[in-house]
Amino acid sequence: MKTILIVIITITVLNVQAQITAPAGTQQQHGAPIEQNITSNGLKGSLGVHDPCMVKCDDTYYVFTTGLRSKTSKDMVTWTSGPSMFPRDTKFSWWNNDIPGKVGLWAPDVHYANGKYHMYYSVSAWMNFKSSVGYATNVTLNPKDPRYKWEDQGQVISYKNGGDSVNVIDPNFFADKDGKEYLIYGSYKGGLRLVELDPKTGKPFTDKPQLTIITTRLGEGSYIIKGPEYYYVFASRGKCCAGIESTYQIVMGRAKTVTGPYLTKDGKKWTDNDYTVFLAGDYDEPGRGHNGFFAEGDTTYIVYHAYTRAFKGAALLNIKPLHIDKDGWPSLDPNDKLFKMPDFEKRIFIGQ
């Protein structure tokens, strides 16, 4: 009887876990990390990533991923693993203010401004929703430069002031043409929020900031970019972190202002958790998601991870040019025009 009871309990727990979408960036995905020299979708080298963002320093492209790991390339094709952004023994005291014990450092978002690189990142733990966003700065991305060091700037926003029931993870920074700066964040638990930042501090103006509701239960890994006419929000939905069982997909909406309301192709509102699919999975890559963007010259690139069947479901780096269709919606169709990102926004992707 005890054996039967244990089996029943085990099956029940597994079934419950299978119905929960893991927060982006957790280490629950199937398949060992891919670090050896491989080739996939036109890229080669060390391609194992989760939740990538991309920037450039001098003549080198950098991709930063969950775990605050790094990869580098001279040509955006061949990638090599680099060091962690923080030394292995780093532990800032505020990380444990809300989450005791070991924390996860997920989904960094890095941009360049005012002579420094700025990183926003998630501080969380598996199925612990007392999450927060951290902030650090560096004068260079080159780890061989003697000036290289990510300086802690503390906590930016947390579950305490980041919105009712919101899981405060997956930050993305956006600077508008008028100089105003914003951070979008959140997940399927409580949805996505947008908060204005003080450009002097990189943090909200007050401890009780005014928040803009983008969704109430849709999406994680959100990202905002500006096009010729519209602001576009992207996010990921579905099941992540489960190898070939993943159903992750990238969805999008657009608005006339950065604060929304963001609408789907058929005019429905993101605040009602409606969406338009931008990129879904297929047999070879069942899940694709948690995207970032990078712009250089006339080309904007979408950067994301895809759970790849040929590599036992490992999450691999993908970089593809972004286009825009005749109706003003982003696409991956090479027959469409290239997506033109405004110069004011492109500046944040390339530093010195």
What can you tell me about this protein's structure?
With 352 residues, this protein is mostly beta strands. It has a single domain, classed as Tachylectin-2, Chain A (5 Propeller). Helices cover 6% and strands 43% of the residues. The chain has two helices and 26 strands. The chain has helices at 2-18, 343-346; strands spanning 38-40, 43-45, 53-57, 60-65, 69-73, 78-81, 104-113, 116-125, 128-138, 151-158, 172-175, 181-187, 191-198, 203-204, 211-213, 220-226, 231-237, 249-255, 276-279, 287-296, 299-308, 314-321, 323-324, 330-331, 337-338, 350-351. Strands 1-2-6-5-4-3-26 form a seven-stranded mixed sheet, with no helix packed on it. The longest helix has 17 residues, at 2-18. The model is unreliable at 1-32 (pLDDT under 50).
Key words describing this protein structure:
352 residues; mainly beta; Tachylectin-2, Chain A; 5-stranded antiparallel β-sheet; 26 strands; 43% strand; disordered N terminus
> Helix content range of the residues, please?
under 10%
The count of β-strands is 26
Largest sheet: 7 strands, mixed
Can you name the CATH architecture?
5 Propeller
Summarize the structure.
With 352 residues, the chain is mainly beta. Helix content is 6%, strand content 43%.
What's the helix and strand layout?
Elements: H1 2-18, E1 38-40, E2 43-45, E3 53-57, E4 60-65, E5 69-73, E6 78-81, E7 104-113, E8 116-125, E9 128-138, E10 151-158, E11 172-175, E12 181-187, E13 191-198, E14 203-204, E15 211-213, E16 220-226, E17 231-237, E18 249-255, E19 276-279, E20 287-296, E21 299-308, E22 314-321, E23 323-324, E24 330-331, E25 337-338, H2 343-346, E26 350-351
Parallel strand pairs: 2-6, 3-26
Antiparallel strand pairs: 1-2, 3-4, 4-5, 5-6, 7-8, 8-9, 9-10, 11-12, 12-13, 13-14, 13-15, 16-17, 17-18, 18-19, 20-21, 21-22, 23-24, 23-25
